[in-house]
Amino acid sequence: MKARKLIAVYHDLLAHYGPRHWWPANTPFEVMVGAVLTQNTSWTNVERALDRLRAVVALEPWAIAALPVDVLADALRPAGYYNVKERRLRALCQWVVDQGGMEALHGMETRALRAALLGVHGVGPETADDIVLYAFERPVFVIDAYTRRLFARLGFVRGQETYEGLRARFERALPPDTALYNEYHALIVQHAKMICRTKPVCDACILWACCPARQSFGRHGRKTAFP
Asked: Among 16, 76, 85, 192, who pairs with 146 as Cys (CB 3.0-4.6 Å)?
């Protein structure tokens, strides 16, 4: 994976979509809450859940951790899997409290912070990296299904790499720039949702000229006889 090609894709996406202004949240802790709630659902549903949660409690880790189970679960209903997410969000909030709060977490070294997050119930690598990048502004590259799809089609990766292996490849190829990682991930999500879908809208793709998958999907995003 070559930095020159990765940066070229970034600039093409940025020129087309403009800055995405991610992550949509008022505080770093709200980013953490959103990262848990957005698992397996849309951001629209997360926003609805956040609004319901704000109506019953302050968005502070100690306050959420103290809520009765049924109250917290009911507030999270719009985010789906609300009983599962109740347990995960409560575990995250209690962990923040146990660590000494957000100020103490901000003082942790990046690798130690990431490792500690991965030990929290319900926090996997993608959620941990969302939190480390967007809440704590550390240069970790987030890998998700959109990243795998887009860069596999572009021929940069196979798409079957492990999470950690793929993250390491991006971080080796790119400078450790938090702002770049922030914007790049947001642009990937935007492009994959709008254009590089499971059935891609190739006619509208600004990356068409450099995409080997055009031989498979054709100009209109339909499968062709090409290998």
From this structure: 192
**Domain ends where: 135, 160, 194?**
135
Question: So what's the pLDDT on residue 215?
Answer: 65
pTM of the model: 0.93
Which domain does 198 fall in, by range? 3-20+143-217
Same domain? For 78 and 159 the reply is: no
Query: What average pLDDT values come out for the chain (227 residues) when binned by 10 residues?
Result: 92 97 94 96 96 97 98 98 98 98 97 98 97 98 97 92 96 96 98 95 91 72 45
Q: Final residue of a domain: which of 74, 104, 135?
A: 135
- Residues 153, 83 share a domain: no
Q: What whole-number distance in Å separates Cα of residue 186 and Cα of residue 189?
A: 5
- Is residue 65 within 8 Å of residue 101, measured between CB atoms? no
Which pair of tokens denotes residue 39? 């698992």
Distances (CA, A) of 77 to 37, 45, 53, 57, 70: 10, 9, 10, 15, 11
| Six-digit token string for 162 | 């492990």
CA 137 to chain centroid, in Å, comes to: 13
The number of residues making up the chain comes to 227
Does some domain include residue 44?
Answer: yes
